């Protein structure tokens, strides 16, 4: 079976996996648009998100407190395998029913949150490591809706920064989403 969230994750995940696969070991200490994270930290965070949102899809308690270093031998292959499990976890229609016991939000919102993390953090990693990145176009409209719906609460809790300006005409479509999450779409490590 499939759900709208699993279909969107299936479109977004390969693009994130491709970025992760191209991160070289000598790039792990580079800065990212997430000022508190170097590339290594952001990769570990994204790995935690992918694993813990599998648990949330099954209404199990995630393990946010544990912060293992996932970047041991074979980590790129394991990341790809875990993203496939994430898509599978959200393909069960029951995953979208009711309220998340782990987050206290509607399960559909929780599913959209992991889609946002996979998409935006793939961009973060891409720009930090000098890679091109284009999100799956079909993920952007529901992510705009999510960010507009949760923006104030996310900014208050420190998950998003304040919105950044307006995107110039002709800018990539993802720039609007990035700006709404408090990211500068023009960020570069050297700026």
Structure, explained:
This protein has helices at residues 4-22, 39-57, 75-89, 107-128, 140-156, 174-180. With 191 residues, the chain is mainly alpha-helical. The chain has a single domain, classed as Up-down Bundle (Four Helix Bundle (Hemerythrin (Met), subunit A)). Helix 1 runs antiparallel to helix 3 and helix 5 packs parallel to helix 6. The model has no long low-confidence stretch (mean pLDDT 91).
Q: Tell me the number of structural domains.
A: 1
Q: Give the beta-strand count.
A: 0
Helix and strand pattern: HHHHHH
List low-confidence stretches.
none
Percent of residues in helices comes to 40-55%
| pLDDT averaged residue by residue | 91
Major β-sheet, in short?
none
Distance between the termini: 45 Å
Q: Give the overall shape, derived from the CA principal axes.
A: globular
Could you please say which CATH topology applies here?
A: Four Helix Bundle (Hemerythrin (Met), subunit A)
CATH class: Mainly Alpha
The fraction of residues in strands falls at under 5%
Rg (C-alpha, Å): 16 Å
Count of alpha and pi helical runs: 6
Helical/strand content category: mainly alpha
Q: Architecture in CATH?
A: Up-down Bundle
